[in-house]
Design brief:
This protein is of the alpha/beta class and about 375 residues long. The protein is about 35% helix and about 15% strand. It binds 1,4-dihydronicotinamide adenine dinucleotide and pyruvic acid.
Length: about 375
């Protein structure tokens, strides 16, 4: 199979979908990999390293997009829709629930769109989302701590306090991968941390992991309102796979926070959990202020630490790319239920139920479509 790897074009997105090690793997199995010149630079991978691994460098995005399968990191932006065509296999993060135009472009052009974030193992975990959630979760606590500093617009507190001065309060809504990693760093900084989750079993696990060092609360509007009101930093890490994130933190709750508090909406890639987050922000201009609270809503947080993120991401994506390349997408997905869960659009249909529901579109089961093709 011929695999194309274009450069990422989102603001400050320095990750790339393939490392030279990944190229070596695919080439060793008889595939051809075409990398757009300079695509790996932001992650510290030079064109020559890809060539030494057996890949070919192409000059333009159009050339990289002209292959049988395109591997990317972030969802395509409107200027990339011109490259869509029938039968193209697109393997990348897509986050389609909050993206009606992208969903339409993929179905109109009959792209086989396999979303990293909905590839799901039988134990319900999301192996291609997890490493980036680990990165973003850890970053969320660091970023929150930074923006609480006065010169960054915050109220001017140190999360860990000092002897004789109270520690800062951090509430994390969603105790999955983002939440757990945010908690680790926030606790490491010395903050007073509360995690809120809907799943009591998850709260038990968190209690076992962190013990008395952490507060856990079941998710309901009252607990969220009380915790948000007394927090200096609130981090949103809720996910219902494939679906638009629920708005759990209302405008009234944001108004109840102290001036100079900070919210970090990590779940913004699925639409975000804060009612007052009305736009996606960028690494260039990461925050805005509303009701005196600093709002951070960058949808590609790991793009700021591309060396770590690219390696962590490709560690998990390349084995799945190999299955698709070796068997063809149809057999690979029929043989591997986890990969089948990744198909979001196929033959002009939306094949992920939560995405179809988000846009009021007809849903078709990918397995059924593939077995009748
Ligand atoms: N902004 C960025 O750059 C990045 C964003 N993300 C996003 O972060 C979000 C979280 O991802 P993960 O932690 O990997 O998901 P996860 O599936 O590991 O965790 C989600 C947690 O949310 C909980 N939850 C569901 N409904 C809830 C509710 N009503 N109240 C409280 N908790 C609830 C679940 O029980 C689960 O524990 C996703 O939207 C993901 O795409 C991930 C990486 C980077
Ligand atoms: C998961 C995601 O959206 C990211 O890593 O950018």
């Amino acid at each position: 199979m011929r695999i194309g790897v274009p450069s990422e074009i989102k603001n400050n997105e320095n990750r790339v979908a393939m490392t030279p090690a990944g190229v070596l793997n695919l080439v060793a199995s008889g595939h051809e990999v075409y990398i757009q010149t300079g695509a790996g630079e932001g992650s510290g991978f030079a064109d020559e390293e890809y060539e030494q691994a057996g890949g070919s460098i192409v000059e333009s995005a159009a050339q990289a997009w002209s292959m049988d399968m395109v591997m990317k990191v972030k969802e395509p932006l409107p200027e990339e829709f011109i490259y869509f065509h029938e039968g193209l296999i697109l393997f990348t993060y897509l986050h389609l629930a909050p993206e009606p135009e992208l969903t339409k472009a993929l179905t109109d052009n009959k792209v086989v769109a396999i979303a990293y974030e909905t590839v799901q193992l039988p134990n319900r975990t999301l192996p291609l989302l997890t490493p980036m959630s680990e990165v973003a979760g850890r970053m969320a606590a660091q970023i929150g701590a930074q923006f609480l500093e006065k010169p960054k617009g915050g109220m001017g507190i140190l999360l860990g306090g000092v002897p004789g001065v109270k520690r800062g309060k951090v509430t994390i809504i969603g105790g999955g991968v983002v939440g757990t990693n945010a908690a680790k760093i926030a606790m490491g900084l010395g903050a007073d941390v509360t995690i809120i989750d809907l799943n009591p079993e998850r709260l038990r696990q968190l209690d076992d992991i962190f013990g008395a060092e952490i507060n856990t609360l079941i998710s309901n509007p009252l607990n969220i309102a009380l915790a948000v009101a007394e927090s200096d930093l609130v981090i949103g890490g809720v996910l219902i796979p494939g679906a638009r994130a629920p708005k759990l933190v209302t405008e009234e709750m944001i108004k109840s926070m102290k001036p100079g508090s900070v919210i970090v909406d990590v779940a913004i890639d699925q639409g975000g959990i804060f009612e007052t987050v009305d736009r996606i922000t960028t690494h260039d201009n990461p925050t805005y202020e509303k009701h005196g609270v600093l709002h951070y809503a960058v949808a590609n947080m790991p793009g700021a630490v591309p060396r770590t993120s690219t390696i962590a991401l490709t560690n998990v994506t390349v084995p799945y790319a190999l299955q698709i390349a070796n068997k063809g997408y149809s057999k690979a997905c029929l043989d591997n239920e986890a990969l089948l869960q990744g198909i979001n659009t196929l033959n002009g249909y939306v094949t992920y139920r939560a995405v179809a529901e988000a846009h009021g579109l007809e849903y078709k089961e990918a397995g059924f479509l593939l077995s009748t093709m």
